[in-house]
Design brief:
364 residues, Rossmann fold, 13 helices, 7-stranded antiparallel sheet, Hypothetical Protein Yjia, Chain: A,domain 2, alpha/beta
Length: 364
Amino acid sequence: MTTEKSKTDTGDRRAPLTLLTGFLGSGKTTMLNHILSSPDSGKTAVIVNEFGEIGIDGDLITRADDEMMELTNGCICCAMKGDLLTTLLRLVQRRGGIIEPKIEFDRVIVETTGIADPTPLAQLFYTDMTLSLTYRLDAVLTVIDLKHFQKMVETTDEARKQIAFADKLILNKRDLVSDEEYEAGIRVLDELNPLAPREIAEYGRISVDRLLDIDLFEPKLRDDVVPDWIGIDEDHDQDKPHSGHHHHHDNDHAEIVSVSIVEERPLHWEPFLAFLQGLVDTYGEDLFRVKAIAQIDAVDLPVIIQGVQEVFSPPTHIEVWPGGKRQTRLVIIGRRLRKAEIFAAFENSLERPTTTYDPRWGAI
């Protein structure tokens, strides 16, 4: 379990932001009320489209106007005025006392509407400098209604994307499905997002420390979350042989494809970048997520790569190889990905170039 020390001693003073998604009826409202009523949530600011839609427990509300509700435990709930970026920046101005009323908060939860696509919201953290200097995206959480989500997945593209894009899946309403229905649902999730960690919630209730400050969107600061971020089961992997070539786990469901590669040989920086650029050029907006822990031939430390559609964050390093294994792990999730072509392109990128490139020092 993550300790409080590891959560707080990161040196990052930006406010963590959790993006809470899930289709209509999945149980987001129940879960959000549980978070807000928990003393472990701290001072949390919640952004919603409309107060009436989210149904905050009336016992928690102390004061409300057309833009903000104050709650008994110091949390606040803000109606989205204009777009999300505008609302987030107004929150920062309130915290700094630039506009009234002045408020305090430690973190932010954005509760999306049931049909919201999380992709453009996540991209804002790569493309808007003011936002990225003020907030860090902690995790995209998707709440799953185990009883009904399979029908939504079959008929609704947004439901598929919410699952495929999630950093963590919250499995709700387990008590309403049989063991056979549960296993069938798990198989669907394995097709859409096989590597995201999962939590089972009882009546929307789950320990707050499993939802907030988990640093799963982009683990720049905490090495301990990297196995969950990239989908490494260290206990299971201890006895799994690696041949020196890449392995993969991929499935199709309603055109959403997940591709996973494990490679023992070191990568060469420039050909690997060219491979990633090829993914962007080929798939564009259909490229939902790219995650990698890369073993680069001129770098001793693991290199973290993360992309959302056509936008990639600058590469960063972590200090420890997960499980003590020096290897590349690459996960690609998107729509209509041509797996054979991706494997071939990756294999081609393993050919040694005439020069190598160290992202810290330049060409060698």
